[in-house]
Amino acid sequence: MSLRTSWVESANAPGCEFPLNNLPYGVFDAGQGPRLGIAIGDRVLDVAAVDHGLDAGLFAEPAWNAVMAAGPQVWAALRARLTVLLGDVAHQAAVAPHLVRLEEVTLGLPFTVSEFTDFYASRHHATNVGTMFRGPENALPPNWLSIPIGYNGRASSVVVSGTDVRRPWGQLKAPGADLPHLGPSARFDLELELGAVVGLPSAGMVSVAQADAMIFGYVLLNDWSARDIQAWEYQPLGPFQAKATATTVSPWIVTKAALEPFRVGPPARERPLLPYLREPGPMQYDIALSVGLTPEGGAETILARTNARELYYSAAQQLCHHTTSGCPMRTGDLLGSGTISGGTPDSRGSLLELSWGGAEPVRLADGTERRFLQDGDRLTLYGAAEGEGYRVGFGACTGRVLPALPQPAWTQD
């Protein structure tokens, strides 16, 4: 597929993240309250204000959940109508008054998050982390090549790009110490992930193909992680407070329809998956991903570059597996892929891996080093799929680390 041209000239510019091929969904506020919007070029379109051809009630609330719940036929009809409105110059006079410059709006969380589940679906990431803690011979847990591993997170901690993130307090245990202590995390980290947004609820177990049809779109996702809190708490039940501080998502949902041209097949399987998890076709996506760190007052350093095609399990497989127990999935559920890392040192999607547990600090553009995040650091995730003369981008997913709050007196001896 090649570039679809729009009468919004900026949408046709080389390198534009939001051409007519994309049309991602978000929530914007131009000073009159939050509204549902579509990014096109350097503008955002107020969807409810144009002749979209659908029930106006779908656009009444400042979240895309009602549209998601309406199902794939409505998704397709809306996308087709918006493509005509923004592609055919005959509609320019009627539609142009409802475009606002992106630089003049505040972007909000694009959907109401019902539940959040985070997976562990990158083999390179799982191997790196396992090697650090268990040695290369026991890097992957015995179940990893057969099952999408995940944990239930906190929907309440999901925030939109641009939200500051406070360094967390938690229970820590220093090496060699007999007892733990309460303190601010010293090993605060990022995780470069892709998040799948569930559009349709489930009723019982669904197949991989059915799960794929339930997915509305995708966001960039940074699952902030306190590695020192995690190290002390994760046995026997897995991550808890180490992952509850914040999860940042990009402000635009890139629809599954926009990503169709970028589907790719699965990685090589060391052992066959059980029949219910086998893919009926390509389920991964060729999406280039990167993460940048900007220290306070400094210039950005790109820490890593990787690709979503590195995932061993697709979002559809994760969603399928999630339903096997009878767990009901809801409109607005968010599934994090887990850290996406490649097979080279410069493609690792977390500082835990990039610094190899803190033993090999990462050098920034200003000459300083990082083992883990420092106060004032701004992390930005980038993602885009490259087509023939066009790009389908997600917009930046960014957050700045604030210092930990003072310790309450009642927590001290």
Automatic annotation (TrEMBL):
The keyword Metal-binding applies. GO terms for biological process: homogentisate catabolic process; L-phenylalanine catabolic process; L-tyrosine catabolic process. InterPro entries: Fumarylacetoacetase, Fumarylacetoacetase-like_C, Fumarylacetoacetase_C_sf, Fumarylacetoacetase_N, Fumarylacetoacetase_N_sf. It is an enzyme of class 3 (hydrolase). Ca(2+) binds at D118, E191, E193, D223. Pfam families: FAA_hydrolase, FAA_hydrolase_N. The active site is at H125. This is fumarylacetoacetase. Residues 21-110 form the Fumarylacetoacetase N-terminal domain. Substrate binds at Y120, R134, Q230, Y234, T339. One of its GO terms (molecular function) is metal ion binding.
